[in-house]
Amino acid sequence: MSFWFDALAESGEDALVPRPSLRRDRRVDVCIVGGGLTGLWTAYYLAKADPSLAILVVEKEIAGFGASGRNGGWCSALFPRGTESLERAHGREAALAMRRAMIDTVDEVGRVTDAEGIDCDFVAGGTLNFTRDVVQRAAGVADVANAQRYGVDRLQFLDESASARYGVAPLVDGASVAAVFDPACARVQPARLVRGLARVVEGLGVEIVERSEVTGWGPHRVHVRASDAEGFEGVVTAQSVIIAVEGFGAQLPRVGRHVLPLYSLMIATEPLPASTWEAIGIEHGQTFSDYRHLLVYAQRTADDRIAFGGRGARYHWGSRISPAFDRDDTVFSHLERALGDLLPAARGAAITHRWGGPLGVPRDWHASVNYNARTGVGTAGGYVGDGLSTTNLAGRTLADLVRGESTPLTELPWVGHRSPRWEPEPLRFVGANLGLVGMTVADAEERRTGQPSVAAKLLAPLTGH
């Protein structure tokens, strides 16, 4: 499924053998649909808060199968909607509370993984966002100024002299390279995190069933069909039902147009020698990107590879999801070229792994947590690729909501947020793919004109800006 899973299997750390499927009708306190990070973090904090709870996690494949085990390994304070956008929608204090909560969440993930002995290569090295021409430099300066206005982030602008240690190439001849450093990010090995968390929650008494597909749900009920040889079909009755399926939820009738599955693909290089890393300058624990519109994201892995990902894979008609869509040779070639253009010292490095998968995008690009105490049904998701840490905040928040606790987390502005549904086809197909094409056009436009892209501004409603 990803380099991260291959590393676990090849090292012998985790054979990825599926757990048993559901075998009989069950009655529990909490049934969690989805064995990714949202579901597992929710189970963890519920079990910690009340060990007497009977908690069942139902997973269609294996724990971590979706975005939780395929992502770029950024445990960051990024939230799909920025602080300024949240302020416009919810007010200044709510926006600042959300930002503080996200920053604290990075530390919380580090605290738990250390306390529970989850070896996931967690190193809080921060993120470097490189500016590679005059337009990107202006965007970076604006980000730092905006952070200073709110007084929450500790963003630093690293000018040309401070950025000279990094082997990053400018986008156009004669341009200078600078960077914005955000300390609120840690590098992790995501498969180790999610698989380790699954083992921890089992140790707390949580039951996980795998190869068990949820076919429907309602107040206090979940319908399940096992995909093993026995093919059991049954019902789980629960006081609370938590739906935590992210992009894969687009295949479920009750989710459907509430989320759009947008594919993001990745590559990983062979381990690079020390001389190459000296030329690149990126340290262990650091993640990095630049200010282009068609997003790329990368990290230096614990074994000295570059794991490099980006958008660009097209949206498929009817929100279809298929293993065949995890691989797109055109996008992989684009990522390899983009890596070489960004870091010339990495050109020619062998690409050993290629993978991808869908992430969940709500219509307004606003992640949310919801819980209906009357029906017992809760949901969380819409992370738009910023979910590695956001899932932890969602799990803590859902644990409070399920237990009827009123806490600062339950007052955050994403709690109770309802995103509008995506348009029906063919509008959804045209709009989603137009947004992807538009970001490519926007990057080319800025390189050509040296001015902020008009295309990006026009397409902002489709791309979350």
Rg for CA atoms: 21 Å
Q: Taking all residues together, what is the mean pLDDT?
A: 95
Please give the count of helices: 12
Bulk shape: globular
Q: Uncertain regions: pLDDT < 50 for 5+ in a row?
A: none
Residues in β-strands, percent = 15-25%
Beta-strand segment tally: 18
Major sheet characteristics:
8 strands, mixed
Helix and strand element order: HEHEEHHEHEEEHEEEEEHEEEHEEEHHHH
The class by helix and strand makeup works out as alpha/beta
Helix content: 25-40%
User: How far apart are the first and last residues' alpha carbons, in Å?
Assistant: 30 Å
Describe the structure.
This protein is α/β, with parallel strands linked by helices. Helix content is 33%, strand content 22%. It has helices at residues 3-11, 37-49, 83-90, 92-115, 134-150, 190-203, 274-280, 329-342, 387-402, 427-449, 454-458, 460-463; strands at 26-33, 55-58, 74-76, 127-131, 156-158, 178-182, 185-187, 207-209, 212-218, 221-226, 233-243, 260-269, 287-290, 296-300, 306-310, 351-361, 368-372, 377-381. The strands form 3 sheets. Strands 1, 2, 8, 9, 10, 11, 17 and 18 form an 8-stranded mixed beta sheet that branches. The longest helix is centred in the N-terminal third of the chain and has 24 residues, at 92-115. The protein is globular. The mean pLDDT is 95.
